[in-house]
Structures are given as C-alpha cells and as structure tokens.
Design a protein that fits this description.
Elements (H helix, E strand, L loop, with lengths): L34 E2 H9 L4 H20 L3 H12 L7 E2 L7 H12 L2 E2 L2 E2 L18 H6 L2 H11 L1 H15 L10 H14 L2 H9 L5 H8 L4 H4 L8 H9 L2 H13 L15 H9 L8 E3 L7 E3 L10 H12 L6 H7 L3 H6 L14 H12 L1
Parallel strand pairs: 1-2
Antiparallel strand pairs: 3-4, 5-6
Helix pairs in contact: 2-3, 6-9, 7-8, 7-18, 13-14
C-alpha cells in the first residue's frame, strides 16, 4: 500500500468529467473525452441517424441479435458499432455511485460489449477516474501513529462518514425474518452507499490502516461486518460468483475497473501497470457489496480475497485460480505498498478544518455496541 502528500481540495483542478467521479468528491476529469454516457445516450436518442444504430447494437448484445435482425445480422451489428464510434457515445463513461448508475452502464456496455465473430470486445474503464489518489505521507508517519484508531476517530467526526457508517452497520447486524441473522442484500446496498459516497481519505483509512498486532487486524477485518456481507456457511465456486457478477451491469463494470486499475506488470518498475495505487484501492472498494466482495482472509496477514473457492471447477480450475490470484498475489495490493498508500491519508484528513459537525443520533443499541468494539479494539 502507498503513501501520499496532502493536497487541499481547493488545489485540485476541476477536470472535464460532467459529473463528479464520486459523490462528495470534487469534480474530476475523465481520461477519455469527459463524456457522460447518460447525456451521450440522450443526444443519440434524439438524433435520427444515431438512434436506430444504437437500437441495433443493443439487439446485438442481447444475445439473440441474429434472430431479431435476420439474415446479415452480423454485418448489421458490425456496421452499427463502427458508426457509433464517431458519435458522443464513444469514450463516454459513468460516475461510480451515481443516481442512475445502472442505466448509464447499460449504455456504456451496449457499445463496449458486442458479440461479433464469437468474441466479446470490452473496454476496461467504465468509470471516470478520481485524482484523489495522489497524496503522500512520509514513512515515519505510517509507523509512529495509530492509523487505525485515528481512522475511526476521523470518521466519527465527519458527519457524512459517521452517518453512513452507522447506517451500514445497523443494516448488516439487524436480524431478518426471511434471511436469518441478517439481510445480506440490504447490508450490501448500505455498504455500497458508504464506499460510493464517503471520500476515500476516510474509507481507505478504515480499510487499509496498518496493523502490528492481531487485535488491530481483527478490527480492520470487521470493518465491513463480514458475518453478513462476506462470510457464509460454505464457500461457493468463484467462477459461479463471477458469472453472477458479470450478469449485472454495475458489478461487471466494477470488476472491469478493478482489473484495469490493479493490473500487475513485470514491465513496470513498481510492478503495477498503472502505477497508481490509490486508484487501485478505489477500484477495490468498488467491489465491496457485490457478489465478489473482497475482505481480509484472516486477522494475522494482509491477504485479501473474495469468499469463494475453486472446488468443483472441473476443467476451469486454472481459470478459477487466476481469478483468486488477482487478489491473493497481486503486487498492487501487497502489504508494503497499500499500507503506505491509503489514498488522501491522515495528513489530508487531520490538517484541514472540518466544516461538518458531529451529530449524535439515536441508533439501535446493537449498532452502537458494534461501532464501539471497532473503535476500541
């Protein structure tokens, strides 16, 4: 994990993304074009030439394009996609956690996934990028302060962080008549809301703070309330979970972004192709609350991975192992790098005056107890 020098929010240049990359974070630039897919889709739909081509391409990616389009369907699909590459749809992206995220991503994947000649074409960057990952701290700051305790304090002081953290803990520990100990769907939804709306200088500090003892590591592991959001009686097959993920626009997009931002590379001096560990951590948190939610595997190491196994993978065991390796042995998520990264860092969080006031709300007793345990562990 890496380390960053604080930069004030005011000093961050407003870039070309028409929407902020994350709710609550200053507007950032898109690396390509800066076009929002929702707006690009509206523009296309109102154009007599673009609109029918988009409809054609959507039929192509639905899986039965040849049936709907009849003879010559493959050529129609290819021609439609080629034509759309010269429209505002090309290069458009979405904002993670935006109000109509799934609608936006459905437009994105219409252009970037097409079944042509038996191959699926995928662009790995569905989300606009955040520059909130360019902050560094000194090595001494990492080792001389209790970063995990400071992370909990900082979140409790910030109104948004405290409110959304309390919400997800409450959702994740509340028993459900239908689901048993908890309602996993409700828990995951609240987790996604927390990691999408709270700036990474808070969320990354909570998730990736460095620990030197097992008690601290266990508190860190419990951050996402794994008994509800992560663990189960048995571990499902990883490829089965990945298939479920890819069938959902949001999960598929976050997995694609994670693969892009956390891609290892032997040609890179750092071992990471993008050489941006903060962006990798942001992509990692985007997976939390999905069917392939990652977490710490135990409280004695910094190894992370989803709750699944490669048992019953049959002839696809190698493919399954590659999936797990992307988490377990990924240098971009290695302990010596990520512990230092913690995007936005303590320096940024604690050297700026908070404009929010901490509000005490009446919450479920068990929620307070759980948060208390995380705070004092």
């Amino acid at each position: 994990m890496i380390i960053y020098t604080a930069v004030s929010r005011e000093s961050i240049t407003t870039l070309t993304c028409p929407l902020p990359c994350l709710t609550g974070i200053p507007r950032m630039a898109l690396s390509v074009g800066g076009r929002d897919c929702l707006r690009a889709g509206d523009t296309c739909s109102s154009d007599d030439t673009c609109s029918p081509r988009l409809r054609t391409l959507r039929q192509c990616v639905a899986g039965d394009g040849s049936v709907k389009l009849g003879p010559g369907a493959r050529n129609q699909c290819e021609n439609a996609m080629t034509a759309l590459l010269s429209t505002p749809l090309h290069g458009c992206q979405c904002k993670r956690g935006m109000k109509k995220e799934k609608n936006c991503l459905s437009i994105y994947w219409s252009l970037h996934q097409s079944v042509l000649h038996g191959k699926i074409r995928i662009s790995p960057k569905p989300f606009c990028r955040s520059l909130m990952s360019s902050f560094f701290l000194s090595e001494s700051e990492v080792t001389t302060v209790n970063r995990c305790l400071d992370a909990a304090k900082a979140c409790n002081i910030d109104e948004t962080c405290q409110k959304l953290r309390t919400e997800y803990v409450s959702s994740c520990i509340q028993p459900s008549a239908r689901s048993g100990p908890c309602n996993r769907a409700k828990c995951n939804k609240a987790l996604r809301k927390f990691f999408d709306r709270v700036p990474p200088e808070y969320t990354n500090e909570l998730l990736f703070c460095p620990c030197t003892d097992t008690a601290c590591a266990e508190r860190r592991r419990q951050t996402i309330v794994p008994s509800c959001s992560y663990e189960d009686k048995e571990k499902p097959n990883c490829l089965a979970q990945l298939r479920i993920c890819k069938a959902d626009y949001v999960c598929r997009s976050r997995w694609a972004q994670f693969q892009h931002d956390c891609q290892p590379s032997e040609q890179s001096a750092s071992g990471c192709k993008q050489e941006n560990y903060g962006q990798c951590l942001l992509a990692y948190t985007g997976l939390i609350g999905s069917t392939i939610t990652p977490n710490y595997l135990d409280n004695s190491t910094s190894n992370v991975g989803p709750w699944c196994s490669c048992a019953a993978s049959g002839n696809h065991r190698e493919q399954c192992s590659d999936f797990l390796t992307f988490f377990h042995d990924n240098i971009c998520l290695s302990n010596d790098k990520v512990i230092q990264t913690v995007a936005a860092g303590v320096s940024h969080t604690h050297t700026h005056t908070h404009t929010h006031t901490h509000t005490h709300t009446h919450t479920h007793t068990h929620t307070g107890i759980y948060l208390g345990l995380l705070y004092f562990f």
